[in-house]
């Protein structure tokens, strides 16, 4: 049982006597994965067995110090760091964000811990409890090069937002603590470049002629499966800007498939519609994208005839 002088426990493990290296005078054990920083410590040994009536007998505290030389220092160059990181993707989120830092500690590190948090949603993506080895060739290795850099691609589905991350290094001569002191910040901007295709605008058909008072605009959001809002734009032929537009929640105008969490068969119906030539398009909004940007479909045209009264 080992603790720092302030009482912080750093090692608390039972060992079977048969597994220890013991002679007539001493027993010794080499703890696995125990990295002590320079400083003062206390050690206790507890004895437990049938001959002691099921009670643990503890030794007195044995103080000792660690002075292993230079500890791992704050000598990293972090990327991404306080910058905008942009991705163009048709997917919901980004899974190939890579965190890098320079491995320039004088005594080297053998493993790292990484903490990553989305401060926009207050979501912790990496809790800093999983060790990643620095050496190349290991299954969970970062592939750090000696005196070079470490790269870590956590394979997480990260949405747009503001992020904060730290790295913690451990080695045979100490640890770094969480670095840098205030963390590293960056903004992830995921631009979803897909928009609804012309072929997915079902009604009115292109160049269609309508004789009814009502008009139904029907479309399939196949290319934008994560969109939660849709905006109908109406244009006069040849005009650059829509003369009318309106946003609709997907749940109000579309059918919903809960098994795949996607909307389909979307329709917007006007009971009456003024005569004349029009063009129409659908814009979509995705909450996972940076500022919701996803794009607007191509236009299709139609003409609503004026009804003639006998």
Structural features, described:
The protein is an all-beta fold. 1% of the residues lie in helices and 44% in strands. The protein contains one helix and 27 strands. The strands form eight sheets. Strands 9, 11, 12, 13, 15 and 16 form a six-stranded mixed beta sheet that branches. A hairpin with a 7-residue loop joins strand 25 and strand 26. The mean pLDDT is 79.
Fold topology:
Elements: E1 2-4, E2 9-11, E3 21-22, E4 27-28, E5 39-43, E6 46-47, E7 57-58, E8 62-66, E9 84-89, E10 99-102, E11 111-118, E12 123-127, E13 132-133, E14 149-152, E15 161-171, E16 174-192, E17 201-203, E18 208-210, E19 215-219, E20 229-235, E21 244-249, H1 250-253, E22 255-257, E23 262-264, E24 266-270, E25 276-285, E26 293-296, E27 300-304
């Amino acid at each position: 049982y080992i603790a720092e002088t302030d009482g912080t426990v750093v090692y608390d493990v039972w060992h079977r006597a048969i597994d220890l290296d013991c002679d007539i005078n001493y027993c010794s054990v080499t703890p696995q994965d125990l990295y002590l920083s320079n400083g003062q410590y206390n050690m206790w040994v507890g004895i437990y067995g049938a001959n002691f009536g099921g009670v643990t007998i503890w030794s007195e505290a044995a103080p000792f110090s660690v002075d292993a030389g230079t500890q791992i220092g704050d000598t990293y160059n972090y990327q991404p760091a306080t910058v905008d990181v942009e991705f163009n993707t048709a997917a919901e989120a980004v899974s190939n964000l890579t965190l890098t830092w320079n491995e320039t500690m004088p005594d080297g590190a053998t493993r790292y811990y990484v903490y990553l948090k989305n401060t926009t949603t207050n979501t912790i993506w990496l809790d800093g409890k999983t060790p990643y080895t620095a050496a190349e060739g290991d299954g969970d290795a970062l592939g750090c090069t000696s005196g070079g850099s470490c790269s870590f691609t956590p394979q997480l589905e990260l949405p747009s937002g503001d992020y904060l991350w730290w790295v913690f290094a451990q080695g045979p001569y100490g640890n770094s603590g969480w670095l840098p002191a205030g963390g590293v910040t960056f903004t992830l901007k995921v631009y979803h470049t897909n928009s609804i295709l012309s072929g997915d605008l079902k009604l009115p058909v292109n160049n269609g002629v309508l004789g009814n008072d009502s008009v139904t605009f029907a479309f399939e959001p196949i290319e934008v499966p994560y969109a939660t809002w849709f905006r109908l734009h109406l244009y006069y032929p040849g005009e650059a800007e829509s003369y009318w537009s309106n946003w609709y929640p997907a749940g109000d105008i579309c059918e919903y498939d809960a098994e795949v969490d996607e909307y389909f068969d979307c329709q917007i119906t006007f009971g009456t519609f003024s005569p004349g030539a029009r063009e129409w398009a659908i814009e979509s909004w995705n909450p996972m994208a940076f500022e919701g940007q996803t794009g607007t479909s191509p236009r299709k045209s139609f003409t609503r005839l004026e009804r003639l009264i006998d």
